[in-house]
């Protein structure tokens, strides 16, 4: 009996390559914030504060779109509840930023202003680690990851799939939104968290801090893209695509789809949590509205418009749709939702592979 030697998969980067990437990350984070300060404001290379905030926000959306592509485009699991994981990461960061305000609030108390207004005497138990930046970094990925793991464990073990899974994820998000709206939960109720002052004892509204957050968001998006590219090229990624195309055959081949689906589902939730944590200090607010079902549906639209199962496609979709939203909500606010719905219908009917698929078709005809 002859054995077939499968070709070995080349790593995404060598050890020297990853070292160079880490050094480049540190250098860019240190230098880039100052570049926009020395470039004249009239130069085409200068980014205004509005442009920095807008692009930073869209890059956070792009991370969510990439996370959606991993579970929908490559695994065949359509989630309509990823806005929950995005908001959870945002709330964890928001709690830390609220503690950074200290006695600079309106009531000159160590408690957040909304707690003083509601006559709270002490911080609730779930705020215990909110004054530690290290703990905050851990909780940003741990909280969305734990919620996703518990939910996914029972859902995948019960073999819930297809439209039923999508509906349950949306119900989970809606239930969480109603919970966070309640004042007694200690999350700011309808208003959420806002009026942030400092991040790591540094004023958060300065141009240098905004540019630092902008660069960190871009590098995080790049890092997650490289991670996703490595995962999809691995054996793990090939099994995910096999589950998407024929889950029953995967089971007959001796693989347990539950572990694979649960792993990628949890990783996807963690990515959204990181995106939410980067989003909050750049936007300056987090409230239960980020958990609305419409926001989760919009994440799926980014992936569909850009092109599922392409990695770069959802990123493009996030930039295109969010950029159009920023313009249309100002120029034609009453038509934005009609445009979004019509765009999704058109892409579904005529561009199932999204904008990336359209570009490939045009290149094929021209070649």
What does this structure look like?
This protein is an all-alpha fold and 367 residues long. It has a domain at 51-291. 69% of the residues lie in helices and 2% in strands. The protein has 13 helices and four strands. The protein has helices spanning 15-38, 49-73, 82-101, 113-117, 133-157, 162-181, 207-233, 235-252, 257-283, 293-306, 312-331, 336-350, 354-366, and strands at 193-194, 198-199, 202-203, 285-286. Strands 1-4 form a two-stranded antiparallel sheet. A two-stranded antiparallel sheet has the order 2-3. β2 and β3 (202-203) form a beta hairpin. The chain is globular and about 65 Å long. The termini are far apart.
Alpha-carbon distance between the two ends? 45 Å
Give Rg in angstroms.
22 Å
Gross morphology: globular
N-to-C SSE string, H for helix and E for strand: HHHHHHEEEHHHEHHHH
Seen as an oligomer or otherwise, the chain set is single chain
Largest sheet: 2 strands, antiparallel
User: Uncertain runs with pLDDT below 50, 5 residues or more?
Assistant: 1-7
Extended strand count: 4
How is this fold's topology laid out?
Blueprint: H1 15-38, H2 49-73, H3 82-101, H4 113-117, H5 133-157, H6 162-181, E1 193-194, E2 198-199, E3 202-203, H7 207-233, H8 235-252, H9 257-283, E4 285-286, H10 293-306, H11 312-331, H12 336-350, H13 354-366
Helix pairs in contact: 1-7, 2-7, 2-9, 2-10, 2-11, 3-5, 3-9, 5-9, 7-8, 7-9, 8-9, 10-11, 10-13
């Amino acid at each position: 009996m002859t054995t077939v030697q499968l070709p070995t998969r080349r790593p995404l980067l060598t050890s020297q390559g990853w070292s160079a990437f880490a050094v480049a990350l540190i250098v860019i984070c240190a230098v880039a914030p100052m570049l926009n300060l020395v470039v004249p404001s009239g130069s085409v290379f200068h980014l205004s504060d509005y442009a920095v905030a807008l692009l930073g926000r869209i890059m956070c959306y792009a991370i969510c779109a990439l996370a959606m592509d991993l579970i929908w485009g490559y695994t065949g699991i359509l989630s309509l509840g990823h806005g929950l994981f995005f908001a959870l990461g945002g709330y964890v960061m928001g709690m830390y930023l609220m503690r950074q305000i200290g006695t600079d609030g309106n009531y000159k108390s160590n408690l957040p202003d909304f707690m003083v207004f509601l006559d709270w005497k002490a911080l609730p138990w779930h705020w215990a680690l909110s004054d530690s930046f290290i703990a905050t970094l851990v909780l940003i990925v741990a909280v969305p990851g734990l919620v996703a793991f518990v939910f996914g464990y029972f859902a995948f073990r019960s073999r819930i799939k297809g439209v039923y899974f999508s509906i349950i994820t949306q119900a989970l998000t809606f239930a969480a939104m109603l919970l966070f709206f309640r004042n007694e939960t200690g999350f700011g109720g309808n208003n959420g968290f806002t009026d942030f002052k400092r991040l790591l004892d540094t004023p958060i509204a300065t141009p240098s801090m905004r540019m630092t957050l902008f660069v960190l968001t871009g590098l995080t998006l790049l890092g997650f893209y490289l991670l996703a590219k490595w995962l999809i090229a691995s054996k793990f990624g090939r099994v995910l695509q096999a589950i998407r195309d024929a889950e029953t055959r995967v089971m007959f081949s001796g693989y347990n789809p539950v572990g694979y689906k649960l792993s990628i589902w949890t990783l996807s939730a963690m990515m959204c949590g990181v995106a939410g944590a980067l989003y909050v200090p750049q936007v300056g607010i987090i409230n239960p509205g980020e958990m609305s079902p419409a926001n989760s549906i919009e994440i799926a639209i980014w992936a569909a418009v850009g092109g599922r199962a392409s990695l770069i496609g959802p990123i493009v979709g996030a930039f295109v749709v969010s950029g159009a939203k920023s313009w249309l909500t100002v120029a034609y606010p009453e038509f934005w939702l009609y445009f979004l719905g019509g765009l999704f219908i058109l892409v579904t009917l005529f561009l199932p592979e999204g904008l990336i698929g359209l570009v490939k078709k045009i290149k094929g005809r021209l070649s």
